[in-house]
């Protein structure tokens, strides 16, 4: 049972994820992930928005882990918590030092999972043996580009959050994201993602909305 360390691109922020087992891996094709990557790039993260994302050759690689964290006070002081819109539910954490997206979560995960963008931050674990389970939010992606992606393999797609469209894979995804956390881990000293920002003002900013929806 090994822990996973998430590090920002400049090395000043480190977050420990206690349970390093990947619950689910997705390639997210949604506009909001694209917008968050552009914001990260604008805050200084040179890895955040590569050509492959810009020209819709791929989406954002996302890993789901159990919501069990250890964060030093030093790192906590450097974190910025953001939502794209007041009505938005997803809270994303950026390292102010270099713009890296450290982690993120949506209330639909029921407090059980956090998400990590391994192409945006640095992670202490190889992912070569971790298969991608699904494409997420394929409805947002230019359909011609989506057809090109699909030619690479037989990865299922979730088109929206609507069960009538996604009767097969959406329930599997939700089951993984909402899976109970093992008692063994809960017994160890830890904090949760939601506790990290419970007393902090969340920045609401829809920066780069139009740019992120532009097709190149
Ligand atoms: Zn940094
Ligand atoms: Zn997304």
Keywords for this entry:
single chain, 216 residues, alpha+beta, Metal Binding Protein, Guanine Nucleotide Exchange Factor, Chain A, five-stranded mixed beta sheet, four-stranded antiparallel beta sheet, 8 helices, 13 strands, globular, binds zinc ion
Brief description of this entry?
By secondary structure, this protein is α+β, with helices and mostly antiparallel strands. 23% of the residues lie in helices and 24% in strands.
What would your notes on this structure say?
There is one protein chain. The chain has one domain (4-212): Beta Complex (Metal Binding Protein, Guanine Nucleotide Exchange Factor, Chain A). The chain is 23% helix and 24% strand. The protein is built from 8 helices and 13 strands. A 5-stranded mixed β-sheet has the order 9-4-3-11-12. It has a 4-stranded antiparallel β-sheet with strand order 5-2-1-10. The model has no long low-confidence stretch (mean pLDDT 94). Bound molecules: zinc ion (ZN) (2 copies). One zinc ion (ZN) binds at residues 8-10, 12-13, 95, 97-98, 100.
């Amino acid at each position: 049972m090994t822990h996973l360390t998430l590090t920002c691109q400049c090395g000043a922020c480190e977050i420990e994820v206690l349970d390093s087992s990947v619950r689910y891996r997705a390639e997210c094709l949604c506009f909001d992930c694209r917008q968050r990557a552009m914001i990260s790039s604008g805050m200084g993260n040179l890895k955040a928005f590569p050509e492959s994302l810009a020209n819709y050759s791929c989406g954002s690689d996302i890993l789901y882990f159990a919501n069990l964290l250890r964060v030093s006070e030093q790192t906590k002081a450097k974190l910025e918590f953001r939502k794209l819109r007041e009505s938005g539910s997803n809270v994303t954490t950026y390292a102010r030092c270099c713009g890296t997206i450290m982690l993120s979560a949506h209330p639909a995960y029921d407090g059980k999972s956090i998400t990590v963008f391994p192409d945006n931050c640095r992670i202490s674990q190889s992912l070569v043996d971790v298969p991608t389970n699904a494409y997420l939010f394929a409805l947002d992606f230019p359909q011609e580009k989506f057809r090109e992606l699909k030619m690479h393999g037989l990865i299922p797609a979730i088109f929206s959050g609507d069960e009538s469209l996604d009767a097969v894979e959406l329930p599997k995804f939700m089951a993984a994201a909402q899976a109970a956390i093992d008692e063994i881990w809960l017994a160890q000293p830890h904090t949760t993602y939601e506790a990290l920002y419970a007393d902090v003002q969340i920045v609401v900013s829809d920066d780069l909305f139009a740019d992120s929806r532009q097709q190149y």
